[in-house]
Write a structure and sequence with these properties.
The protein folds into two domains: 150 residues, no CATH class; 125 residues, no CATH class. It is globular. The protein is built from 14 helices and two strands. With 348 residues, the chain is an all-alpha fold.
């Protein structure tokens, strides 16, 4: 596609760049990798040299290893009372690191608000830090609060205590939409737009809320960079509107490019997935389209890919109704039956 050729269904004021087609090719190939690994195929799982070399998240956010751990071992392994669910999810997401959660469960047997003690949790985490153990994930930055606490994790534990005292779990259950739940979370210090949206999405994997993932989206910094690279001009569309546009036209774009995209057992890409894909394509384009600039100015991808040898049994929120299909040898048919193309570094 040249810049002069317009894909169907785009508003006249929206002008894609050559990275627009790469967005769809990347999504299809990254999802194909997911299913190749699931089927037991031997590596490499893709002919694409960039996808072989660097770490990229799955096309579906809930299929990533940390999200899978959260769903199976944090949300649905333990009491389902609203206060306990909220406490476990927020505590896990504050650090967003499996090793930190396992450190806490090893220390206390189980993580429970009913048995929580600031003194004891602080002692375990402080000892880990003093021993050189990283307790926060580098996936996104958890800001500190100027509240007099010497260490950041103490501020975050105090924040969680505050939210528990104000019964945020019960208030979330009363929210009519993901946007209202997001606004509630956003009203607390140290929780900005991006974190509030991520927290709302993770809480929504539980039975605490039942919002549609097509209800609301907040673009993060990486997604904004990806949008800038995929479009020369988005016209009157906001960044959130642009993400929604991608979700709306996904089947047509895969078909237009002759791509065979296999959904998550019938579940289309949701707004949060399209948001994440913009972030991942932003990184991918640093190698594939180095001449296309975004908003970040970054030119290199930091994280190299190393296959995790630990097996992962996929399991999704039961309310999605797909777990009986997961792991089946007879994989679901692709959404678009067409001859697939590689992501490729030259095709535009």
């Amino acid at each position: 596609m040249t810049n002069a050729v317009r894909p169907p269904r785009l508003p006249n004021s929206v002008h894609p760049s050559k990275v627009f087609n790469t967005y769809w090719r990347f999504a299809a190939e990254r999802q194909a990798i997911f299913f190749r690994r699931l089927s037991g195929a031997a590596p490499p799982w893709t002919p694409d040299p960039v996808l072989q070399a660097y770490r990229f998240t799955n096309a579906y956010r809930a299929a990533d290893r940390v999200s899978q751990y959260l769903i199976r071992h944090v949300i649905y392994d333990g009491p389902q009372a609203p206060q306990e669910l909220f406490f476990r999810v927020l505590l896990f997401k504050i650090f967003n690191r499996i090793e930190t959660w396992e450190l806490l469960t090893k220390s206390f047997g189980r993580v429970s608000f009913a048995e929580y003690s600031f003194k004891h949790y602080d002692a375990v985490l402080s000892q880990a830090i003093s021993s050189g153990v990283r307790i926060y994930s580098p996936a996104y930055i958890m800001p500190a609060c100027r509240d007099g606490e010497a260490r950041k994790h103490r501020s975050h534990l105090r924040l969680l205590e505050w939210m528990m005292r104000e019964h945020v779990a019960d208030r979330l259950r009363e929210c009519a939409s993901m946007e209202s739940g997001f606004s509630l979370l956003r009203s607390y210090p140290m929780i900005g737009d991006f974190l509030a949206y991520q927290f709302a999405t993770d809480l929504n994997y539980s039975t605490l809320t039942n919002f549609s993932e097509m209800d609301f989206v907040v673009p993060g910094p990486g997604a904004k960079d990806g949008i800038r690279k995929c479009f020369r001009d988005t016209g009157h569309l906001s960044e959130a509107d642009t993400i929604r546009l991608m979700a709306d036209i996904q089947e047509e774009q895969f078909a237009r490019l002759g791509l065979s995209f296999r959904t998550l057992w019938g579940r289309r890409l949701q707004l949060v997935d399209c948001q994440n894909l913009f972030c991942e394509v932003s990184k991918y384009a640093r190698c594939v389209h180095p001449d296309v600039s975004g908003t970040s100015g970054r030119t290199r991808i930091k994280q190299r890919f190393h296959a995790n040898p630990d097996p992962l049994r996929y399991w999704f929120p039961p309310k999605w109704g797909i777990n009986h299909l997961v792991g089946s040898c007879d994989l679901a048919p692709a959404t678009t039956q067409a001859h697939g193309g590689k992501v490729g570094t030259k095709r535009t």
